[in-house]
């Protein structure tokens, strides 16, 4: 079951959306004032439904702002069916659109399809607020920029990130990343961490925390 955010200035539309999606057990958060969206913890949502025509902030503009913070599916709710409008919407970062008026089955099917696709993609991604790991490509992305990590540096970051919030000693990090037969020793972990931090500092990103006297943890 997913956490879904629905943003629309029409209360009736919001109530309808919640009624329909509740049938599939989804938890739906309703927002009728689009100016309050930026204050929400957007990364907590699995999918966002966003109206295009709103009185205070244009839906396309709001979509761009949301997309800078999250990579979950964004579906526009729109009465605009002109080709140019749809191109603008998809270019703003939306994944799809649902035309108003929409039916019960159509809304549920579209939402379910995007949630399933997102679930498949996330199996190959480890996502945080500003960064994500492309697990298949062995890349760390920060603000959509590839961080130029060495193989060892990447392994350390991936291990810590996959166990975010947990503290590991240098010995544990060494064992989990290089193994008992690794050519390095645990003293090199500190050097690797220093190099990683130097590269991430250029992006003003500081996810690796030192727990003095113990070791390191990832807080992305």
UniProtKB/TrEMBL annotation:
What residues are annotated to bind DNA? 123-220
Q: Which InterPro entries match?
A: CheY-like_superfamily, OmpR/PhoB-type_DNA-bd, Sig_transdc_resp-reg_C-effctor, Sig_transdc_resp-reg_receiver, WalR-like, WH-like_DNA-bd_sf
The opening ranks of the lineage are:
Bacteria, Bacillati, Bacillota, Clostridia, Lachnospirales
GO-annotated cellular components: cytosol; protein-DNA complex
Q: From the Swiss-Prot or TrEMBL record, give the protein name.
A: Stage 0 sporulation protein A homolog
Gene3D superfamilies cross-referenced by the UniProt entry: 3.40.50.2300, 6.10.250.690, Winged helix-like DNA-binding domain superfamily/Winged helix DNA-binding domain (1.10.10.10)
Picking any one GO molecular function of the record gives: transcription cis-regulatory region binding
Q: Name one GO biological process term.
A: regulation of DNA-templated transcription
Q: Does the keyword DNA-binding apply?
A: yes
Q: Which PROSITE patterns match?
A: OMPR_PHOB, RESPONSE_REGULATORY
Q: Which residues carry this modification: 4-aspartylphosphate?
A: 51
Record the organism: Candidatus Galacturonatibacter soehngenii
Indicate the segments forming the OmpR/PhoB-type domain, all copies: 123-220
Whether Cell membrane counts among this entry's keywords is no
Q: Which UniProt keywords apply?
A: DNA-binding, Phosphoprotein, Transcription, Transcription regulation
Its function? May play the central regulatory role in sporulation. It may be an element of the effector pathway responsible for the activation of sporulation genes in response to nutritional stress. Spo0A may act in concert with spo0H (a sigma factor) to control the expression of some genes that are critical to the sporulation process.
All residue ranges annotated as the Response regulatory domain in the record: 3-115
